[in-house]
Amino acid sequence: MVLMDEELVPPDSIEGVSDEEMLEWKTEYDVLVTLRDLSHHAEPLGVSDDLGAIRKFIEEFRPDIAFNLLEEFQGVAVYDQHVVSYLELMKLPYTGCNPRGLMLAHDKALSKQILSYHRILTPRFAVFERGRSATLRRNYTYPLLVKSVIEEASLGISQKSIVHSPEQLKARIEYVHEELKTDALVEEFIEGRELYVGVIGNRRLQTLPIWEMTFKNLPDDMANIATRRVKWDTAHQKELGVETNAAEDISKPTQAAISRLCKRVYRALSLSGYARLDLRMTADERVYVLEANPNPNLSYGEDFAESAEAMGVSYEPLLQRILNLGLSYKPQWYG
Length: 335
Hints:
By secondary structure, the protein is of the alpha+beta class. 36% of the residues lie in helices and 19% in strands. Strands 8, 9, 10, 11, 12 and 13 form a 6-stranded antiparallel beta sheet that branches. It has a 4-stranded antiparallel beta sheet with strand order 4-7-5-6, with helices on both faces. Strands 2-1-3 form a 3-stranded parallel beta sheet, sandwiched between helices.
């Protein structure tokens, strides 16, 4: 069972479909086709707000495992953890992260508290709850970055998310409250390199090569952050010269330290299956953990798959390994 949003179920054929037209459901298409190429009997199930559809599919199709590509349920990003909990209640193995790890990673404030407890470097932060007026302290050090405390995929993040004054801060908090309808997370903006590290495994963990987002044509008045447009607007990517490739000029000791750090974060947040960690490294090689992203984008040619390819694991073996990890994960019901 390849579990996905019902609006992202791909067509049987992509003949005549442009790259931009298939961008929204490319992951679903790539995974489904590749699983079938691996000789698995893979069937898509699109859902949006009905758990009964999952139960019916399980009872009729009797799958060995669910390949979970679902990123939200009932239009709520954090509800994917409840769907995975339902799979556990149905005693069906699944790929990707467990419910506890999804809950901890999705709540960016809670995950930062956990990382701070483990003395893992993360930007200082504050949470401004929706429905309450934003009372600003005078001792903030600008610039600051304002974003949703729960939304993923850079939703709501733009160049305006970086604020330089109390007036800008208040306005951006109100934007998150009113437009995204979530609490606002305000954190210190770390100047440095934007790094991504894939981690795969349940108990025995492996880190993928360090990946970096770079901007060839970034104007002086813009920050090198992964805004919503940078992630999803291909024309904007070309305009700024956005590239993601293996990070260069990082010493072997620093690479090893980053690998150890990412494994610590993965375990501290109870993650399983596979995840991508977002980091910032300053000029003096201080590494800050921005956030953890369980079940990251698995499209062919995207960062996670490309970094696996860089260490000799091509797309088909990568998906098979993710399947194997799902089959070997032992939740509470397993006994």
